[in-house]
Amino acid sequence: MNIIYTYFRKPFSSAMKVFESINAVREHTHSLKNQQLRLGFVPTMGALHQGHLSLVRRAAQENDMVAVSIFVNPIQFNNPDDLDKYPRNIGADLELLNPLLREDDFVFVPSVSEIYPSAETHTYDFGDLATVMEGRYRPGHFNGVGIVVNRLFRIVEPGTAYFGEKDFQQLAIVRRLLGIEELPIEIVPCEIIREPDGLAMSSRNVRLTEEHRKAAPLIYQTLKNASAMTGSSDPGQLKQYITATLNQPGKLEVEYVEFADETTLTPVSNWSQAEKIRCFIAVQAGAVRLIDNIRV
């Protein structure tokens, strides 16, 4: 079913296809299979910003057809309060997507019951990828990510899927998921899109108070400074520097900072332990949790 949404200023063009059901998605994509169109997929949880839109633009450049999903996945939230407060504005999201989508492109906006018609009990073994950093502080998070991404992949059946590097650990999990599920999909990592002051774009940024928003750019500034100090400091020293710089009572509080191998996400204690090393961080800014990373 092609739904025309009229949430805001004007009705959306009939060229933008918006589907709520799995059957509608499959009917549309299967009807085009004989044309051998390359389908690029951008899974999102909505509250779209320019970071998301950059993924959609790239998918449109590299594929004949683009699918975008908007679904706030309840089973990847270990904190019920975080789920309740996650920003949702489907009308605004569709307004942003409308000018980017072409005749065969579509948006998938399923309900929770459409994705999970029954209780989900599956458990993935992602190994050490799911036990460090975000996995340590958000138990069950990556299992929920794996379940929903697998569901979406099997519904949309893309040839390529686009993920931002801000959620770098999630990117590693999705790659591992493809091996477990034996899915023939190419994962395309896309660089972090930042605000002019350096803050990594995130749907959660809209929840920052004015005071915390002013303090938040210090996260990336500090990561850049630490990256420039690798010639004279080891990972342990830089972790101390980053934590001491960012911890500001009432403004920012470091939850974790870790230097790890980009491929395995194994923490490193010296620069010779991996060819490519990245610094990962999670910071609490008032009621909002921010993550970021930078290659060092």
Short description:
The chain contains eleven helices and nine strands. The protein has helices spanning 22-31, 50-62, 80-85, 90-97, 112-115, 134-137, 141-156, 168-181, 210-215, 218-228, 235-246, and strands spanning 17-19, 39-44, 65-70, 106-108, 160-164, 186-190, 253-261, 277-285, 288-295.
Structure keywords:
Rossmann fold, 11 helices, 2 domains, alpha/beta, three-stranded antiparallel β-sheet, about 300 residues, six-stranded parallel β-sheet, single chain, Pantoate--beta-alanine Ligase, Chain: A,domain 2
Describe the structure.
The chain contains eleven helices and nine strands. With 296 residues, it is an alpha/beta fold. The chain folds into two domains: 17-190, Rossmann fold, CATH 3.40.50; 203-295, Pantoate--beta-alanine Ligase, Chain: A,domain 2 (2-Layer Sandwich), CATH 3.30.1300. Strands 1-4-3-2-5-6 form a six-stranded parallel beta sheet, with helices on both faces. It has a three-stranded antiparallel beta sheet with strand order 7-8-9. Helix 2 (50-62) links the parallel strand 2 (39-44) and strand 3. The radius of gyration is 20 Å and the shape is globular. The relative contact order is 0.13.
